[in-house]
Structures are given as C-alpha cells and as structure tokens.
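Hi all, posting the design record for the shared folder.

TITLE: backbone redesign
STEP: 1 of 1
STRUCTURE INPUT:
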C-alpha cells in the first residue's frame, strides 16, 4: 500500500471523484483521508467506506482492495455500473458489504462464496437488493459457504427458480428475498435455521404449503409471505417455537387455526 499523500490520491482514484465528494480535498497531511466523513480509519488504515447516495456512476475499480484493512463497504443507492464486482473477492477482511440499489448487470456469480477467503474474512452482512438490472439468476447454492453470514438482503434482485434446500445450511439471522420471481415450495430445511429472526419472502411466485418447520424456530419473530400462491394449510403449530409475533400471509388464502396470541394477517 502506498503511504502518505499517495494513499489520499489512491482513495480519491478509487471513487473517481464524483461531485458529491468534492470536500475530499488534497492535503500534504498523510492521514488527511481519515478526516473525511465517509471514511473511518484505524491506525491510519481505512477500515470503513460509507458512501451511500453519493452519485457514484463508475465501475468498482480492481484496486479497491489495495486498502488491505477494509472491513466495511457501503455503496447503497448509487449508480454503479458493470457486472458483480468480483474484485471484492480480494478484500480479505470484509465483514459488511452493501451494493444495493445500483445498476449492476449480468448474473449473480456462482462462486460468490469467495467473498470469504479462508478464515480471514468474516462477512456477516450482504446487501444486493434493488438491483433489477441483474439478469434472471438462481440463488447460488454456494451461499451456504458464507459461514458467518447473518443478514442476506436480496429483495428485487431478479432471482428466479426454486429456493435451494441448502438455504437451511446458512447461519443467517435475517433473510429477505422478497419481490423476486422464485417458484416452487418454501424449502422445509428453512427450519434448520435455528437462529433465524426474520424470514421475508413476500411478492414472489412460491407455491405449496408453508412448512411447519418454520414454527419450530425458537428465535423467529417475523414471517412475511404475502402475495404468493400458498393456499395450503397453515400449521396450527406455527408459533410453537415461542417467540413468533406475527405472520403476514394475505393474498394466499391459507387455512388453519392459530393460537390467540399470534398476530396474523391472512386475508
């Protein structure tokens, strides 16, 4: 990694100097980049790039991960172009990545698990939501290899096909695959997500019965399944796990009897 003023120049080059970042003024101070509000440093090394809504409209450059200590990348709500930035596979310490609401094209890569490099990366948040210019893609089964993932946010990401059974192998606490086009049944293996708190699958093309195993997840508090094709019986045991506060399943017409304490919307 370049040091001193070269580091300042490198960071500005990475972001391609959009007008929204004109306050990133050059300086002879070797750590001036650490004073920029969108950047967090630790021991003069960049660990956090928070660039939400900064009108960035270029591709993500191949040398972004030259910032070797980068842990947090937030590029939500920009105009970033190009395919999924596989160059981020080289960010070996990445914990948080939000690429939501951009203009990525092509497919979601099958080797997306490479966002975790051996035991070095501990990616626990991945946001790819509102990227409707992605080509229709299945949810890659390789997601199960993101062993530390806690939040998977992929609403309106042009997902198609069946949700793979391997979703039950994730360690996620929150899964949002809403407003896509997946078909088929909700995998029964969802019940293996023992620490899941939120399952959001509304406005898809899912069919069949809502798995009874969902109600056995003791940590689950929020289930949103509305606007699908799930006319089957909704198990009366759906909240036996103990913490489920509500099921929103309207525009499905499920049947069944429910405990009085469960807030449920099924119209």
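Okay, here is what came back for every position:
SEQUENCE:
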């Amino acid at each position: 990694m370049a040091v001193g003023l070269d580091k300042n120049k490198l960071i500005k080059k990475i972001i391609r100097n959009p007008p929204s970042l004109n306050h990133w003024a050059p300086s002879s101070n070797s750590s001036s980049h650490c004073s920029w509000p969108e950047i967090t440093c630790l021991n003069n090394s960049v660990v956090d790039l928070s660039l939400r809504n900064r009108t960035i409209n270029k591709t993500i450059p191949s040398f972004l991960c030259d910032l070797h200590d980068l842990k947090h990348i937030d590029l939500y709500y920009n105009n970033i172009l190009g395919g999924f930035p596989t160059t981020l596979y080289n960010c070996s310490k990445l914990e948080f990545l939000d690429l939501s609401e951009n203009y990525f094209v092509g497919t979601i890569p099958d080797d997306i698990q490479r966002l975790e490099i051996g035991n070095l990366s501990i990616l626990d948040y991945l946001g790819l939501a509102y990227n409707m210019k992605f080509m229709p893609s299945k949810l890659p089964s390789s997601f199960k290899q993101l062993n530390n993932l806690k939040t998977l946010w992929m609403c309106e990401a042009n997902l198609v096909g069946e949700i793979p059974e391997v979703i039950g192998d994730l360690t996620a606490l929150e899964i949002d695959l809403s407003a896509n086009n997946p078909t088929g049944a909700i995998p029964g293996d969802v019940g293996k997500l023992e620490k899941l708190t939120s399952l959001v699958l509304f406005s898809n093309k899912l069919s069949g019965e809502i798995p009874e195993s969902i109600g056995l997840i003791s940590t689950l508090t929020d289930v949103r399944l509305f606007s699908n094709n799930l006319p089957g019986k909704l198990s009366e045991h759906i909240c036996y796990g103990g913490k489920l506060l509500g099921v929103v399943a309207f525009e499905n017409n499920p049947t069944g009897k429910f405990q009085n304490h469960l807030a449920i919307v099924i119209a």
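COMMENT: The two ends are 58 Å apart (CA to CA).
Let me know if anyone wants the other runs.
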